[in-house]
Amino acid sequence: MRGAFCGVLLLLLAAISARAEDRVAVGQYLTILGDCAACHTPPGGAPFSGGRRIPTPFGWVIAPNLTFDRKSGLGLWSAADFDRALRFGRKPDGGFLYPAHPYPYFARFTAEESAAIRAYLATLAPVYQPARGADLPFPFDFRVLLWFWNALYVPAPPPLRGAGHDALWDRGAWIANGPGHCGACHTPKTLLGGDDLARAWQGGMAAGWLAPALDGDPRTGLGAWREAEIAQFLATGAAHGQLATGPMAEVITLSTAQMTKADRAAIAHYLKTLPQSPGSVAPAPPPAMMAAGEALYRLRCAPCHGRDGEGTAGLFPRLAGSAIVQAPQPATILRVVREGTRAVATKAAPTGPAMPGFAGLLDDGAIAAIATYIRNSWGNAAPAVSEAEARR
Amino acid sequence: MTIRLKPVDAVIIGFGWSGALLAEALSGAGLTVLALERGPFRDTAQDFPPSRVADELRYAVRHDLVVKPAENTITFRNKTSQTALPVRALGSFLPGSGVGGGGVHWNGQTWRFRPSDFTLKSRALARYGKNFLAPDLTIQDWGVSYDELEPFYDRFEYLCGISGQAGNLRGARLPGGNPFEGARARPYPTPPMAMPYAPTLFADAARGVGYHPFPQPSANLSQAYTNPFGVVLGACSYCGFCERFGCGNYAKASPQTTILPILRERAQFSLRTQCTVLTIAHDGKGSKARGVTYTDDSGEVFFQPADLVILSAYTFENIRLLLLSGIGAPYDPASGKGVVGRNYSYQTTSSVALGFADKLLNPFIGAGALGMVIDDWNGDHYDHGPLGFLGGAYLAALATNSRPILNHPTPPGTPRWGAAWKRAVAKSYLRSMRILASGSSLSHRGAYCDLDPTYRDRFRRPLLRLTFDFHPNDLKMSAFATDRLAEIGRAMRPEWLVVDKREAPYSIVPYQSTHNVGGAIIGADPTTSVVNPYLQSWDLDNLFVVGASAFPQNASYNPTGTVAALALRAAEAITTRYLRAPGPLA
Amino acid sequence: MRRRDLLASSAVIALIGCAAQTPESGLQFFTPEEAARVTAIANRLIPADELGPGAGEVGAARFIDRALAGAYGTSRDLYMRPPFLPGVPSQGAQSPLTPAVRYRVGLAALDAHCRAAFAGRGFVDLSGQEQDRVLADLEQGRIAITGGGRAFFDLVLRDTVAGFFADPQYGGNQGMAGWRLIGFPGARYDYRDVVARHGEPYHLPPVALA
To answer: In CATH, what number is assigned to the domain containing residue B479?
Structure first.
């Protein structure tokens, strides 16, 4: 009897709190779509307590504490303060936030979504973790300049809905251009660090790593990927013979692997509708360089990637047809050869293999020859890499 | 002062194959698991990339990946009348050290023992009578059958992606496989490796003599493989730097390439390296183990409380820790009583070297478990009665370990140095090969381990003392097997041939095999075994002693497959039965 | 190990503390004289001929010098706790003498033997034939050296062969002469394309690690 009464009471309470819980859950999922933890959760630290140093092309920015600590976090911020910061890049005092915070993308959140995110952050244990500001050289330390920057690069977000697209496309476009802020890395930047929208999705740089093109280019973009492969890559970090590494490894772990299957499918669906950018055909590389590159490749690379550049799915990335290998700028492939890298490990693709660096073993000429060879073998085509480019 | 640490559900001593298998099973069942490893952390790209690992001097000669005698060794003598002396430099065997243990630098020869191996004694008594066995042989049945182990052999083979050709699939004989093997539920997960010239010549000759050659089952994989955990292994590139080396391209199954990626992501698992366990704490026979005392680089001593203790170090260290911790009655060779240290056995190996005038064998093309084998003189499918010995050997040509510092064969009669030596080496390196017999080793009364009265380790603890020599039964077996091997060798029509017989006394100096087994053996009777058929200590029911230390005698095969099957069976007994009702499982 | 050797060895160990460091010669353990003797020995153990250079010419002394200056020379990784008792051969070597000590003592003793037997000429001053005769005597245990003449010969032979076939980064096998002699391709790591090509010569040249 008593038990039955308790049960009724619990049901009542549950009904009352359901709306609030829903909102928190929605807010939490939006932080996953936005990959917020990548910057705002320190490695091994309390969730969203900030403190991570974010490299930008102009210097370091320190991600602030998003817990509701009254001294060092958002504890004293009003709902309006939070919304203005999240979506429009303004501080409570009216000052500007650095656009390392991707508010040009977050402007696509609705006020309701913004409130949901805040509701979720409010449930986290407050952590005292004072912000340590930013470390940008003059004139980028001069925040008033951001007014001009915003005027240039943060117009009201253009509408996404194109004619003839379905709801799946709409969802994918919204995530990719909104919370997912994919273009923040995958769209090239102008000299001032804003998105170069004329070349949208043609690939960019992130923390010294190539973020390859996501457009329809069959060599440097996603032209040769199937929709299902893109979705699988977002889920596991391993598909189409490629493995996520560098900053994308963390995007997979903290964001895309935790998204719903439907949202990954939506992103993949949207990306596959991006057009092929007008590319240029690279001139044929010098034959002597190719011959040297082949000999070195056989010795140093073939034990894992294979004579045919096909690699091993989930273990050794396929070089034949790889966008990173054929990128116009060889920076990332040179970096990987020099320093090595470790691929992301996810539940579905747990291997997490690593490649050793060859900097101590191969000189600049040898690295240039190998890079040139893999960029121009097995159907690949990309400009030859000079010894000067291979030099640090 | 001993620092007391926060308790864990299970502590694992030694992180080789056994420790890794147990760690996966126990953490997968939700236990908090702490593994303590004496050696350093090791992983493929950082420790043995292809650009660094192809270094014979560092790994094969200077033993970079194996235990350093300065850290731990044993003392040795052939018989009790001698004074045991320390093994100052490793020779006859090379126990591992570091994460992955011997599983990092093994050859990858992945065998199942035959069904008859598990009932060796009762079968011999029934078939050959009581008087056939020498009175000092102490062989015994395992208390576990092949059929009981089959699912666990299978599980390990599929964990690793073993390359091979089944010979007996659920009773159906398949061509090209081992016709004498026990029935297997599934074929090997990957096909056999591509075969180099030398093993092919051996197989052709063996077939001509009437034998049944088949490819060596191998943990160097013939093709890329994704294991049941989703971990991907690569394809072997036949580099020839395998045994004594870590694999640079993820192609050799090891704890690193099969299990560690899973454990790395499990919050309930942790691994501490450079930690040497000093003793296992307990409250006496019939009680429980309380945990372990260990020390690390800092010199501090820690007590780690645990509800379950898994002792999965190398054979020698398993025995020594039991003796140092006062667990189980030490074996006394005079009375034959006691169990800890009893029934040590080894591997009785021999070989035949041969050279050709006209055949380029290119021995540098190799792997660890790459070759052709015949099993016709193994097990007990033929009548041992007229031969006068029990046991047998597999005969094989393996394309392995042909790097030039340790392997530069010359025809008989060549001087050891000078111009004639140089000419002979230049001519012979690409044109010679070795074929081998890997024979069984029967335990006997005078082969055992105890604590040394004189020599101590760096922590002032007594070293383990090994007393061992080949039993006449095994020498007889080996002579017979070596003769059969030489017959095949002659059928290969070489230009020259040299027979290297195995003779007594056993010497600790030349490398023979890292198959040191027994001393903490499995059995159905607590008066003649240390652990029950689930590897559970008869004395402390929350202590499991895992590894080849459990073998009551050694079959002719390489032990890893059987070590893993026993480990996985113990793990399943713990997770499905022991955790529900802690207590003796048998 | 005889008691006499033990006593001698403790004196030698005291001596070794002031091992010659001659940075200008690039040597880390040997004196230039010792290095010259090792080169001469190695050139007899693996002599130059129409097949290629001798072991001494391609860096045997440098290889052994570096090894002796490191963990190998001091037996750092071996079990070196006393007591050192005589045993039987199956129990393995039981000696407190490290390779560094054995070389220092052995090279000096060998040279003293030569000077006594060949009217004041040291090992490097002998003809090739004379050197071969001395080495054969050493191999047969006919020259007394602390720790055993034959054991010293075996040590030098083992190290010379190791240097001749080890990766060139260790100082020996310069130009990969040892590998070229026998047809070993060195640090190559992928033979998938040739594993099933039975009996065919392998055409690619050897490669070293560094």
So the answer is: 3.50.50.60
Q: How far apart are the first and last CA of chain B?
A: 39
Asked if B465 reaches chain C (Cβ–Cβ under 8 Å), the answer is no
A299: chain C residues, CB-CB within 8 Å: 188-189, 207
The total of structural domains in chain B comes to: 1
Q: What is the average per-residue pLDDT within B553-561?
A: 98
Residue, of A288 and A21, whose pLDDT is higher? A288
Residue B395, helix vs strand vs coil? strand
Residue B543 contacts residue B536 (beta carbons within 8 Å): yes
- Write out the residue range of the structural domain in which residue B307 sits: 2-77+90-578
CATH class of A287-390: mainly alpha
- Does the residue B585 lie in any domain? no
> Which residue type is seen at A16?
I
Q: What rounded mean pLDDT belongs to chain A?
A: 85
Least CB–CB distance from A352: residue in B50, B52, B261: B261
- d(C-alpha B165, C-alpha B177), whole Å: 5
Residue extents of the structural domains in chain A:
19-153, 167-271, 287-390
- Please, which residues bridge with residue B498 across strands? B353
Neighbours of chain C (3+ CB pairs under 8 A): A, B
Given the residues B212, B282, B444, B515, select the one marked as catalytic.
Answer: B515
**Which residues, in sequence order, are CB contacts of C39 under 8 Å at separation 6+?**
C56, C57, C60, C61
pLDDT tens digits for range B375-416: 999 999 999 999 999 999 999 999 999 999 999 999 999 999
| Cα distances (angstroms) measured from residue B322 to each of A153, B292, B326 | 72, 12, 6
Q: B453: cis peptide before it, omega within 30°?
A: no
The number of residues making up chain C comes to: 210
Residues B127-148 have a mean pLDDT of 97
B277-312: pLDDT as tens digits: 999 999 999 999 999 999 998 889 999 999 999 999
Active site residue B63: no
What is the structure's pLDDT at A220? 87
Q: What is the mean pLDDT of residues B355-378?
A: 97
Minimal Cα distance from C207: which residue of A? A299
Q: Is A354's CB within 8 Å of B262's CB?
A: no
Q: Which residue has the higher pLDDT, B343 or A223?
A: B343
**C-beta atoms of B405 and C182 within 8 A:** no
pLDDT tens-digit map of C4-46: 444 444 444 444 444 445 456 799 999 999 999 999 999 999 9
Distance in angstroms (rounded) separating the CA atoms of residues B503 and B496: 22
> So what's the pLDDT on residue A90?
84
Of the candidates C192, C193, C207, which has its C-beta nearest A299's C-beta? C207
The residue of chain B with its CA nearest to that of C95 is B88
Q: Which of B80, B98, B50, B138 is nearest to B518 (CA)?
A: B138
Is the CA virtual torsion A225, A231, A237, A239 positive or negative?
negative
The answer to whether residue B196 is domain-embedded is: yes
Provide the whole-model pTM: 0.89
CB B22 within 8 A of CB B310: yes
**CA-angle at B80, arms to B74 and B85, nearest 5°:** 35
Q: Show Cβ contacts of residue C2 under 8 Å, excluding neighbours closer than 6 positions.
A: C86
A interface mutation test: which of C189, C190, C194 has the most A CBs within 10 A? C190
- pLDDT at A147 (0 to 100): 54
What pLDDT sits at residue A188?
A: 87
Average confidence score pLDDT of chain B: 97
Asked if B365 and B453 count as a contact pair (C-beta separation under 8 A), the reply is no
pLDDT digits (tens, 9 = 90+) for B22-80: 999 999 999 999 999 999 999 998 999 998 999 999 999 999 999 999 999 999 999 99
Chain A: closest CA distance from residue C65 (Å)? 25
Which chains have at least 3 CB atom pairs separated by less than 8 Å from chain A?
B, C
